[in-house]
Amino acid sequence: LYRGATGICPIYERIGKDTTDPEAINITEDITVNAPKEKVYAFWRELSNLPKFMSHLKEVTEKSRTESHWTANTPGNLIPLSWNAEITHEEEGSYIGWQSVEGSMIENAGKVTFNDTLNNIGTEIHVEINYFPPAGSVGRGITSLFNGVFEKMIRADIQSFKTYVEEKDFLNYAGLSEQD
User: Fold this and answer.
1) Which residues constitute the domain of residue 78?
2) Against a cut of 0.85, is the pTM above it?
3) Helix, strand, or coil here: 111?
4) What phi and psi, each to the nearest 5 degrees, are found at residue 88?
């Protein structure tokens, strides 16, 4: 609520970024999936799984438990984008917070929280992602062209996680049967 009312993101505030910048892309999305929290968290935490349901991601390579390299597809695949990121805060089974490392092509930060549903058979997922355009007039120009498209693509990717999690591939991955 605080962020919604003020436009201030506590994650970025801690690292000195201004999320009230009109050129920043700030995305918040909530979904509920019909799968147990521990399985959903474990799947998401294995970052190389993210491109399986996020079409804007081409590849995520884990370099260590907290460091990773990301490659993204841009709208129309016009420009290859990649960056390095680090997990800055993690609460096993319920929270993953990250930010891009200094010098990355794309500055971003965010968090994903995982909570049991009231009936304890599903998972509520809250995602916050903040992207900042590359520096300079070229970056601002590209951002103004693609902000809306990029935001819609990321929102659709997050929503597609629900579909992915409730399909046979995930159920097999998680060791669940369709009756569980």
Assistant:
1) 21-173
2) no
3) strand
4) -100, -25
- The residue with greater pLDDT, 2 or 116, is 116
d(CA 100, CA 123): 27
What is the Cα Rg of the chain in Å? 16
For residue 169, give the 3-state DSSP assignment.
helix
- Note the pLDDT tens digit of each residue in 70-121: 998 776 777 778 899 999 999 999 999 999 999 888 889 999 999 999 888 8
Cα(87)–Cα(33) distance, integer angstroms: 24
- Total tally of structural domains belonging to the chain: 1
- Identify whether 5 is part of a domain: no
| Cβ-based neighbours of 49, under 8 Å, separated by 6 or more | 43
Q: Which CATH number do you get for residue 123?
A: 3.30.530.20
Q: Is the separation of the CB atoms in 95 and 89 below 8 Å?
A: yes
